[in-house]
Amino acid sequence: MRFELFIAARYLRARRRQAVVGLITLISVIGVAAGVASLIIALAITNGMRRDLQDRLVGSTAHVLLMKTAGDGIDNWRPLLDKLQHQPHVLAAAPGLYGQVLISRGPRSGGALIKGILPDDELKTGNLLQSIKQGSYGELQPTTLIPNPSPLIPKPIVIGQDLATTLGAEVGDSLLVTSPQGELTPLGLIPRYEHFRVVGIFNSGFYQYDSSYAFMRLADAQHLFSEPDVISVISFKLDDLYKAQQVGHALEQVAGNGFQATNWMEQNRELFRALKLEQVVTFIVLALIVVVAALNILIALTMMVMEKTRDIAVMMSFGVDASQIRRIFLAQGLLISGIGTVLGLVVGYAASLAGSHYKFIQLDASIYSIDYLPFAPRIIDALAVAALSLITALLATLYPSHSAASVLPAEALRYE
């Protein structure tokens, strides 16, 4: 061990005449540990929120959506779909028909976004159907066994868990679906309505979808919305989700004039921007804890220099130069910060890993979009926090170490 580090460690372990110096040193260590642990936990939470929201958004929806900029939808869509799904980076494509409806069951009702789908294609671009907890999506498969089914036989529909709770519906229950795109009669526009039977209830854990999404067969949606063989959107899944913008432009060129592509990043830009801003603000606010701890280090070292003035003078009279005295107190400050940083990292990572594994903090999904508080600790965050802690402590030791190096041996020993 180097001379300076040896003396610094001895000073930390030595019994002091002034107990308050030792108390402030202990408070400094605890303060650094608390600041580092708070930063690690806060960054783990913001990273977990970003990761889970992105995974659920990307998993539940397509990477790229292609639609017409004007008109009643995409007609003659089958040849276009076949051509587009063979473009570079496209893994799968699925047709869909969206429409806003009112779903009722007795006195209960709620708005919903209906999507008419072909289940086999839909499963290749999103995983909402894979999150069905009750029933199944099997009855959504297109069938030609009954070309003109009786209107008395309810058609199948799959709804989200929170929407089912709002309606008080379970698998097998009948729902009344009302479309605002009704029929024009001599008495005016009359909304079209049909009865559907709940065949499945999905629970993705993402409130936006569980509370307002429903799936039905594409042909049933076209009939409900009084559309011919038309779709409103083509969904794409890519081999690299971060190429969504580039692939979207390419699909627009292939599809021709009148088409516009959007992607998951554009649809959720404000959400991820807000999460990034929250992470930065959280880091700045909690870093103030480390700054306060560094001020405690400054006070502790200043008082220690005053206490050890005679020792410093003796060492200098034995040939220890000013730069070595300066390094002794620099090392002492870094030891205090280093011990606190290690303790903070251990506590912060232990708490983050426990929260990630046990998911013991539940959230209101209607507010936060997810039903538990996620944790995602990262090594790069630990390095950044440790660097912040050590640099702040180093700055706090500059004044005390300079004061120690400025001690004049003759003056310090004159009255001893």
- Determine the strand fraction and express it as a percent band: 15-25%
Mean pLDDT: 86
Query: How much helicity do the residues have?
Result: 40-55%
In the predicted model, the low-confidence regions spanning at least 5 consecutive residues are: 144-148
Based on CA atoms alone, the radius of gyration comes out at: 33 Å
Between the first and last Cα atoms, what is the distance in angstroms?
31 Å
Number of helices: 15
What is the N-to-C order of secondary-structure elements (H for helix, E for strand)? HHEEHEEHEEHEEHEHEEHEHHHHHHH
How is the biggest beta sheet arranged? 6 strands, mixed, barrel
User: What spatial form do the alpha-carbon principal axes imply?
Assistant: elongated
> What's the count of strands?
12
Number of separate domains: 2
Class per helix and strand makeup: alpha+beta
Strand order of the largest sheet: 3-4-9-6-8-7
Describe, in plain words, how this protein is organized in 3D:
Its main location: membrane. It is a multi-pass membrane protein. Pfam families: FtsX, MacB_PCD. The structure is a single chain. The protein is α+β, with helices and mostly antiparallel strands. It has two domains: 199 residues, no CATH class; 139 residues, no CATH class. Helices cover 54% and strands 21% of the residues. It has 15 helices and twelve strands. The strands form two sheets. The chain has a six-stranded mixed beta barrel, surrounded by four helices. Strands 2-10 form a two-stranded antiparallel ribbon. The radius of gyration is 33 Å and the shape is elongated. About 1% of the residues have low confidence.
